[in-house]
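Hi R.,

Here's the chain you asked about this morning:
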Amino acid sequence: MDKPARNGKVDLLKFLFSIIVIIYHFDNAVKYPFEIFTRGYIGVEFFFVTSGFLFAKSLSKYTYQKETLISNSVGFMKKKFLSFFPYHFFFFAATFIYAWINYGWTFQKGFAQFFRSIPDLLMLRMSGISNLPLLGHEWYISAMLIVMFLLTPFAIKYRKAFLLYLCPILCVGLLGILYHQKHDLDFVSQWMLICPAGILRAAAELSLGCLCYVFHEKGTLNKVPKALLILAEVFLYALIIFYALGTLNSFKQFNDYTMLFLAAPAVLISFSDRSSVRFLNNRFVYFLGKLSFPIYLSQIFIRQILAPLPFPSYALHTTVYVVCVIAVSLLCILVMDNLQKLR
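And here is the predicted structure, written out as tokens:
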């Protein structure tokens, strides 16, 4: 049987963790006696590790040639940038229009704000130049693109040294710096060394994902029984989700860094052919994976509108929020995909 082009299990996990992240951010914006995901930001770690794995996998297709190194590196990043940009542009435009109306900008001020927000438009807010706070959640996309842009030429030219030498150094070294500053990973904008903390977080966790690909490439899990792999996978993700819920707060041995290093073997197992679950490899689950990115992008735009509104209960408020985020995300895919087809 042919291997499926996509991994349905990973797509389903992307959707699940995107919902966890947006509920966490919504909880921080509304005032209710309790929250569901008090540590829901930990879902970003799953996305970074997964992105690092796919980054290493994609670059494995490139053969180093001196004459084509720069063109291959630029071509790879151009493809990555353009895969994100249409959906990002949809929500940048929606957020900017909302801010213009909400803050009562004049025509002149609106245009001035637009030109100052060009770094946000180009997904470069983590460069340190940003003018649109309502796009703060896009730090993840910006940090990932910046780090990949810096690492891609080295990953192509010095593939073995990059994976076996540089990635462990970046992972352990940068996480050590972050841990020294704060014992959790929930800080992004604080300026450290020559860049925001989010850049260091992205570099460390993308490197961890690359290391996962090294083990995958070596076939580390090939001899492990499938039932044992699936059991371990479910257990690891359950721990991460319980941690996101805040139910493990009483256990001092669990912290953000513990969850990050639990996410690595979980992602490795999820990408293993040995743990494949065939019924998840279908178009609906693949679409959920595709939907996860617009969901992540739309969250603050929808939150700004819904959070101030009165609701009789937290459950109803959160449910309406999630439904609206998904609905707007579907609209985004419908509009932007059709525009790209027309182009």
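One quick note: Residues 34 and 314 are 8 Å apart (CA to CA).

Cheers,
M.
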